[in-house]
Amino acid sequence: MDCPWDKFAREKLTKIFKEKYKIIDIGGGLRVDNSRNNRLSPDNLWLADYLAKVDYKVLDKVADFHPDIIGDVHQLPFADNSVDAIICIAVLEHVENPIQAMSEIHRVLKSGGYAYIYVPFLYYYHPLTGYYQDFYRFTYDGVRHLTRNFQQVEIQNVRGALATVFNLLPFLSKRTAFLNRFDKLLGKQASRQTSGYDIFCVK
Fold this sequence. Notes:
By secondary structure, this protein is α/β, with parallel strands linked by helices.
């Protein structure tokens, strides 16, 4: 069963890869190429056909996983108005100053440029020892504040209330799919008590 957040992600990522050329994936969250990342995501392999048609590059703050560009999201190594699209999935909770990071994303995007972002809200603690810490969580209001400088913003919650509760427990987090049906029946798929938010912004 396709969930609203799965449909949202596929629609917005397709839009980015069809309509934009210079695409920067901060942190490599798409995980479509394990030669420049720490693992591959089978869920995103459908994007592989697009990669040869665009200038897609992974940016990370360290060289550990062989990104194309080493750089800090707090000071992106790009000129103003120079990037067509930014992808930033599950990064902003791990940076010291997410407001500054979002300001940098806005700065480097061209007018009309796209940003696709995921941030967690009700989600378990998940640092990676020696690589990044886990600083923040984001409410709906926090997301609105982070994206306030963009011309257009669409926000889609990820998981309903019941699935979110189960997802908070790491040993159950891979078994929440069946709860999506109950969330839908109970009208809880659009709850603000959610695991996180997918966000699509237009500068």
